[in-house]
Give the backbone structure.
Amino acid sequence: MYATLGVSFWLTLALSVPAAGFLVRIFIIQHDCGHGAFFRSRTTNDWVGRLCSLATLAPYANWRRQHAAHHANWNNLDRRESGEDIYSACLTTHEYRRLSPLRRVRYRFLRHPAVALIILPPLVFLLVYRFPFDTPAHWRRERLSVHATNLVLAAAIVGLGLVVGFGAMARVQLPIMVIASVIGVWLFSVQHRFEAAHWFVRDEWSVAGASLRGTSYLRLPAILQWFTGNIGFHHVHHLNPRIPNYRLAACHAASRQLQQAPTLTLRDALKAAAYWLWDDAQGRMVRFRDCPTNGDRQR
């Protein structure tokens, strides 16, 4: 990509697409390392995860512990405060209707696909992950990981900028990070928020039930499945996070029960970005337009 800058910036941008695909795959490796799944050795997992975080910009130890809360509480309406994240948060239709008009507008604005899936993801990776503002004070190792990652990144940015030029570095690195962050956030979010996704209350929730009804099998073309590190087999991953990404497809193929999980095509997944509310009466996710309030016009 650096070599093409002198030829055509459009060519550089075209190359940023496959480069972003590789970055998404690196993030999936970091994700597996965080679960202790990619290697048998915990030490190897941790060091490879830390190295990956220098490419993904997501501080390894801090992200790993926060992500563990997601795995403890996903699609559980009674424990959203413990596991809420950018991938699987939602309100019920009843809760949404009880919001004030201003708060409803704010909620809908932040979850518009252009905002939630295009504008915010790059900001999360480039800026939000630079500060441990939502990390509890007693998570000392995790807070240290944020500062240590920032220090190494700063040194790498200065060093690379001095070699290739800071303008050239920005023209190469920023498009890769923007595209990869958009793809990554979309991948994780649509596999918890789609029309057939089930959200549980109280004692309904179980790991097996939430895996097979609250997450999906995102069936992707083979090349996209490879770039995304098989994360489309999300139901298998949630059933057992210690299964490495390179074994997920085999596990899915070996179990008829796993094959009964909700299946999304690429087209289905693109539509799923509109589903943000859980309708308990219908037992499914719905769009904002399917949940009129007193101030909305019926459609």
